[in-house]
Write a sequence for this structure.
């Protein structure tokens, strides 16, 4: 842990300009939530999918900082583990598609073939690299139709660095980390004392003060949603933390990676009633809620209505501005897509690659109430006055 803390400090010093940033002193004003603008909870959440990855290489410090600037309520990430057991922010189990690993001759012999969720995959696997080796790689943009100028500029970051980026924001910004590919990670990475990936994941959150039920005082100070496609992982972490959890749901053809259950089984009323005991919401792929045909929207399914009837929130993924990602009904206008999902379907949070666009749409159509802003600012000031007076 010591070495990744050390890296965290270096990164923060680089990010925030020197002596002011000191994660060893959590009482520092940058970390003092009492002086920060609170999380908005009156409208659906803007969840910055892999940071502002529409603009900058995904899951890098730069992508997360951009998302925070642009108004994200939550920054979202995928947690995987290195060969030496460090938790990192990275989406794919292989490094091939979004790093320069293939160009690094010293790693040529590391290419492997493993079974991942029932399929044989060949490439350079995250779990075969130490954190130090992973840090030596550079990340690039996933999609060729996006800005390539930032390729090769940024490193992979650790879970701890990700948390510190959120904690150092100048307002309260939540985190939305995923327990990614837990079956594969537990097969390939071993920790001391028989600890599992899920244990290390929750330990990290607890160490940084993330705890408390949804909307509790603790949660509002450090908001978090824990997400996973693997129900077993969500159920097992509920014994370790009462932080809210979200069950991700894949497309209709992909069975769950741990319990091998079909889409239809895990979206049945019986299953929603069961999983409701462990999670606060579901995160489905948007095209399963409104299945498209020839790139036009089809008839919406009743999944959102049934989830709401089970008191489950719905946070669909993934909203992308580009024409190639928009159904024709939206006239190549991402604001029309947001309007549809917020006003017609009625969801509780949206995973977007373009936090800035969603934020602008929501500020135009449902702005943060001015009076509420003023009242909150006044109450903060009064609370601080009373504190200074020794009450
Ligand atoms: C990497 O890109 C290739 C080609 O686009 C795609 O087939 C493959 O699924 C990608 N791999 C991952 C892990 O996303
Ligand atoms: C790998 O090297 C080739 C040839 O020099 C270059 O075109 C390519 O951009 C490099 N890829 C990455 C991801 O750095
Ligand atoms: C959670 O804890 C209870 C009580 O200790 C135990 O019976 C149960 O098996 C645990 N569940 C999981 C999934 O670990
Ligand atoms: C998963 O379930 C499907 C359908 O019931 C079955 O055909 C398949 O063999 C199962 N896979 C595993 C790994 O158990």
């Amino acid at each position: 842990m010591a070495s990744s803390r050390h890296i965290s400090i270096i990164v923060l010093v680089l990010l925030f300009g020197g002596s002011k940033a000191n994660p060893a002193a959590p009482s520092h004003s940058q970390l003092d939530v009492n002086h920060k603008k609170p999380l908005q909870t009156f409208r659906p959440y803007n969840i910055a999918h892999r940071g502002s990855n529409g603009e900058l290489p995904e899951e890098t410090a730069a992508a997360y900082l951009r998302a925070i600037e642009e108004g994200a309520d939550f920054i979202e990430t995928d947690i995987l583990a290195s060969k030496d057991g460090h938790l990192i922010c990275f989406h794919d189990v292989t490094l091939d598609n979004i790093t320069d690993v293939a160009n690094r001759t010293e790693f040529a012999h590391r290419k492997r073939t493993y079974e991942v969720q029932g399929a044989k995959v060949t490439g350079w696997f995250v779990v075969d690299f130490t954190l130090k080796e992973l840090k030596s790689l550079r990340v690039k943009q996933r999609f060729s139709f996006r800005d390539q100028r930032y390729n090769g500029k940024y490193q992979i970051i650790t879970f701890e660095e990700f948390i510190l980026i959120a904690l150092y924001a100048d307002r309260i910004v939540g985190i939305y980390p995923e327990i990614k590919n837990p079956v594969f990670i537990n097969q390939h990475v071993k920790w001391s004392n028989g600890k599992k990936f899920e244990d290390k994941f929750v330990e990290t959150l607890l160490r940084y003060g993330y705890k408390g039920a949804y909307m509790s005082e603790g949660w509002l100070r450090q908001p978090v949603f824990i997400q996973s496609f693997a129900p077993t992982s969500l159920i097992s972490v509920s014994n370790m933390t009462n932080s809210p959890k979200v069950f991700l749901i894949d497309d209709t053809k992909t069975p769950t990676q741990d319990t091998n259950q079909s889409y239809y089984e895990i979206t049945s009323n019986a299953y929603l009633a069961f999983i409701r005991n462990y999670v606060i919401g579901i995160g489905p792929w948007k095209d399963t809620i409104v299945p498209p045909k020839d790139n036009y929207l089809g008839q919406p399914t009743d999944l959102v209505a049934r989830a709401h009837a089970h008191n489950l929130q719905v946070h669909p993924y993934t909203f992308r501005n580009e024409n190639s990602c928009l159904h024709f009904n939206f006239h190549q206008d991402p604001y029309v897509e947001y309007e549809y999902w917020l006003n017609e379907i009625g969801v509780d949070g949206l995973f977007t690659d373009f936090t800035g666009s969603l934020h602008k749409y929501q500020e135009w159509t449902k702005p943060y109430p001015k009076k509420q802003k003023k009242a909150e600012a006044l109450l903060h000031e009064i609370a601080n006055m009373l504190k200074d007076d020794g009450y």
Observations:
- The first helix runs from residue 2 to 16.
- The radius of gyration is 21 Å.
- Confidence is low (pLDDT under 50) at residues 1-27.
